[in-house]
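Run log, item B.
One chain of 128 residues. Sequence copied directly from the ordering sheet:
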Amino acid sequence: MSAIRKRALSTIAVGDIFNADVPNGGTVLCLAVAVTATGIQARDICRQGEFLDFDRQTGVAPCPWSKIGTTCTITSIEPLPPDVHDALLGLDRKYNMGRPLTCEEGKLTEAEKKALVFVYDHHKAHQI
């Protein structure tokens, strides 16, 4: 593992939003909720209730929804513009309300749509 990657992983803090990839080509948009010297616990913003426990040194975590031992790997930690970051935090709060959303509540706002489109390209352009 490169020194640049190790250094980048060491900068992740609670509240940071980062991207992780899975081997099938999927991506996971993560919100860091706890950080220790050895690990990063993150919530999948779009798949609430799923927590990933990343190794702080490697940036790899077992995928909790996988039955075959698939792993997720942190691929981008590039900070987001404030408006995008705020929209994604709002999306996380909305999905993490602890109850099913009504049809109206479940609709994405224009800011959330814009943020999700932006973050995909942003993270692909800023890989670690």
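Observations after the first pass:
- Residues 3-125 form one domain.
- The longest strand covers residues 27-35.
Flagged for discussion on Thursday.
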